[in-house]
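Table S2 (text version). Query chain:
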Amino acid sequence: MTIFATNGAKLYIGGAMAATSVDLVQGDFSGQTANWKEIGEVEGLGSLGDTSAEISFDPVNRRRTKRLKGNRSAGTMEVVCGIDYADEGQLALIAAEKTDAEHAFKLVLNDAPSGGTPSERYFVALVGSAGEAFDAANSVMKLNASLWVNSNIVRVNAAAGGGS
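Corresponding structure-token output:
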């Protein structure tokens, strides 16, 4: 199978961690091991990934716009959760929104081969919002959080398990 479902994925928030001026690597997150808190009742994970800003130039003698790549942005990850007032991950997310500190995040996907390990994504983000949505009578109350990603996305691919 070459495609995977999102169900079974897990999102974690770590402690404060500043983005750097160079791309992060997996080892940069090793100090977060004791800090990871799973964010519970996640319904939607949004999207992640770099997009380059467009720099355009219109030379009058060419009659064609020239385009260059500018700064890269990993965007905003929009996370939707069913509100759970006792969930440590949700409480950490709400607390992170109240600060100006960037935090470490880890996304573990549900794509591990039999006996292997799943793919992971690591990044640093500011929690830009943590609002509640109540909607209509037959709705679950939601926590909607915006993660403003300020680093590259560190991709760790799924790996097969070792042989015996």
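Notes on Table S2: The helical segments are 88-97. The first helix runs from residue 88 to 97.
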